[in-house]
Amino acid sequence: MLSREYKGIMADAKKLKVAFKEGGKRGVELEGSADLSGIQYFNVAIDSAEGDVELLKEVMRGMNLEVDEDAEERKGGSGKIGKLILSAADHQLGLMCYIPEAKKDELEPTAWMNAVLESFEGGSIVSSDESTACAVIPANPDKSLFPLKMRDEAIAVSIKFLQGKELFPMLADDDDDDEYVYGDDDFDV
Q1: How far apart are the C-alpha atoms of 79 and 76, rounded to whole Å?
Q2: For residues 84 and 6, what is the distance between their CA atoms, to the nearest angstrom?
Q3: Superkingdom of the source (predicted)?
Q4: pLDDT per residue as tens digits for the range 19-33
Q5: Has residue 68 got a pLDDT over 90?
């Protein structure tokens, strides 16, 4: 049976397969979103990885898979997109960022990951290379550090960081409503 070990945690073949499959599906979604919106950096919450870095690596492998145009079901396709994927478990939040080769002049994976980790006590990068950085942030209920809550906060921190580098669009202020709603009294009917 295929398995991978990371710091004493065994990722069994079934979990790896589920993680890869989720990555393939999410990759197609990101590719479509990037094509429609022009956004080239995404933050994605992952369900199947259980906060495990090895499972996050498998998700990322599925996301970045080259698309087989002849396949019945599209998988992957987001290898040209920068992304931070996050997975919450009871004991920790797992994070992995990926920067494609063509975007390495814009951003380094460890810089992105460190920007996110600065907001959380106890988080650390556990592995990195020229295109990826993986980190974990342990849960600490005594300090109100819960993985699900941290995941949402980490996404917000990541977006703010990307916006500061002009790699993610600023949200429009909805207070300036330029659209008017007309009623029957506004027309000579």
Answers
A1: 8
A2: 20
A3: Eukaryota
A4: 999 999 999 999 999
A5: no
Residue with tokens 């819960």: 146
Question: Which is more confidently placed, 10 or 15?
Answer: 15
In one letter, which amino acid is 187? F
Rounded Cα distance between 141 and 118, Å, is 19
Distance separating alpha carbons of residues 17 and 7, to the nearest angstrom: 20
The closest alpha carbon to 26, from 52, 59, 57, 72, belongs to 59
Taking residues 122-140, report their average pLDDT.
Answer: 97
Report how far residue 27's alpha carbon sits from residue 185's, in angstroms, rounded to the nearest whole number.
Answer: 50
pLDDT for residue 6? 46
Pick the closest to residue 59 from 69, 70, 47, 72 (CA basis): 47
pLDDT above 90 for 49: yes
Region of poorest pLDDT, from 28-42, 89-103, 172-186? 172-186
